[in-house]
Fold:
Amino acid sequence: GELIVDNQGMIWVICAGGYQAADGALVQLDPAKSDDASATSILKTIGLKANVSSKAAINKAKDRIFYYQGNSVYVVNTSDTAAPASALFTENDAASFYGIGIDPESDMLYLSDTKSFAGNGTVYRYTSSGVAIDDLSAGVGPNSFVFR
Structure:
């Protein structure tokens, strides 16, 4: 799964879950404990009660983790101990998201839809609060984002 570092220097891993098992999870690890064989580095596990993508992104403040399932996006605050009860938003025009990223300067959320690899895909842009901004045509199979 994806590795993310939060504002406390803790590492988060998103685990997609087993096939049809609905057991995806976010796991928070303390990297300072990883060298100590007698201490567990797992601080908490948040069960997501679903199989999710193994891709995730964190906002500019590094305190909100975004992940998706199908065409719905969810957000977990790093202080949370449970999964959100509902999606932040669902993009009805998307078949299924295939990639996620957050611009570290603008905090704008980017999501890609491959349109089942049957031609060009689409990139959807949202605010980090879930308000749609626009969408852009992309090449075949858009799946990740790089910001500089």
About this structure: The first strand starts at residue 3 and ends at 5. The mean pLDDT is 92.
